[in-house]
Amino acid sequence: MELREVTQSDEAQVTLYRKAFMDRGEVIHGGAGLAQAASAAQWLAELPLFASKDTVPEGFVPAKTYAALEDGQIVGLLNLRLALNAFLRDYGGHIGYSVKPDQRQKGLGAAMLKAGLQQAKAEGLTKVLVICDKENVGSAKVIEANGGRFAEEIKDPSDGALLRRYWIDLT
User: How crowded is the C-beta side of 65, counted as CA atoms within 13 Å?
Assistant: First the structure.
């Protein structure tokens, strides 16, 4: 598995990735707003704004979005937030990630998070917060396998779902 920043040349694959989730009515965790964008092209055009604190839209934090590739195909997305605002501190964390539905149960989530943690460390982060739904046992196992220390459960006020909060030390 290769993890690299998403680029304009990924438009066709990002479109397919988005469709795979939309067809199933699933949330694209770590998608940095991909599901809400008018198109993959628009999303890709706006991603560079998030790279710097000087250009990031108001209310957001600087972040980088990565594609996980297997055999040249996008099989996952990972969003690395380089800072936390109040919302992310409570409900989002530093890293969000998703694996394409037809690529799950292959160890990709664990590999993606491991690579994402390496990127976080390279960006100067020493500790990251990763959050998952309590029902998402697979994600909890991925986080724990990557050194996640359970901190607490909280309720998401938007839908009442229970969330599990984990801290990972990068030092």
Answer: 25
Q: State the helix-helix crossing angle for 108-122 and 137-145, rounded to 10 degrees.
A: 50
Domain residue ranges of the chain, discontinuous segments joined by +: 2-126
Identity at 42, one-letter amino acid code: Q
CATH topology for the 2-126 domain: Aminopeptidase (3.40.630)
Mean per-residue pLDDT of the chain = 96
Distance of CA 138 to the CA centre of its chain: 15
**The tokens 């972040």 sit on which residue?**
63
Strands (E), the chain: 2-5, 63-70, 73-81, 95-99, 127-133, 149-155, 162-169
Does this model's pTM top 0.90? yes
- Using CA atoms, how far apart are residues 83 and 71, in angstroms rounded to an integer? 32
pLDDT at 130 over 90: yes
- Which residues fall within 8 angstroms of residue 157, CB to CB, at 6 or more apart? none
From the list 94, 96, 152, the residue with the least C-alpha distance to 128 is 94
H/E stretch holding 23 = helix 11-24
Residue 72: pLDDT above 90? Answer: yes
Euclidean distance between CA atoms 19 and 60, whole angstroms:
25
